[in-house]
Amino acid sequence: MHRFLRAIGFSKQYSKQEIDQLLGYVMNEPDYHTIIKSGKTKYVEIRRQTGKKTGIVICGEYDQVGFFHVKHYFPYVFSDVFTALEDVVVNKRVDTDAYTGMCDDVRIGISLIFYLQNAADYLRLGCEDNTPHRAKISFSGLSLGGKIILGVYRSNTSQIQKMCEGHEKQELIKQAKEGDQDAIDSLTLDEMDLSSQIRRRIKTEDLYSIVETTFVPYGSESDNYMVIGTIINWTSVSNQYTGEQIVLLQINCNDLLITISIHRDDLMGEPILGARFKGIVWMQGNADYDSPDKL
Known about the structure:
By secondary structure, the chain is of the alpha+beta class. The protein is built from five helices and 14 strands. The protein is 23% helix and 43% strand.
């Protein structure tokens, strides 16, 4: 059983027979079905929505006599907000036939690795792995545990100042990646100043009043992150198959918009606009290769 099924409303411990019944439900009544020829095989992607923006994807292939073989399946939560326009590098995972994408996003300052939701669109390009392609990306994530914490109050002046400082830092990161030594030196000095401020403030202030947002790799899985972000929208929906309640949160983390799905029983606290979500998230991404010109 895929452990993140709980995040879209399948919380009970399902037997293999029950999982097969669930996958049969997806295959018999799909919302989306596509076939891509990949070498001598036919890659098949079958998708069924089980709740608002959430569902299950089954990936497999047809053999020469027409029988379908399930390779793997995964739960997903879809985001309809494209928040990045980057060169995406896609690689096939070692353990399954799934694919992961990677892009360098200057807003968080690291190479962001995510589970590719629409592998069929990538395979349709017919390119080799590890080849960058320009694409619009929407990010989402599934969480098995999180909590609501207070937001950080900012006046209009401080919000504008923070926005300007963020844009300046993004430009410096771009220049540093191009080898600009002055930009590298400036970023180094900024990090030293920031470290000094944190050591001074942590003596008298709460940690979460200093650290407003966080996006940090978590554990051994490359696409798992510990995230803190401000809630800008949320809704409670039910799983059409089980009737269980899940919460969809749209958070802003360093100007990166992420849609998160979490089971209501796994969320500590009541979500409100302006508060923050803190939790471990399995990052997913949908890459639109057809219209990468602008967001």
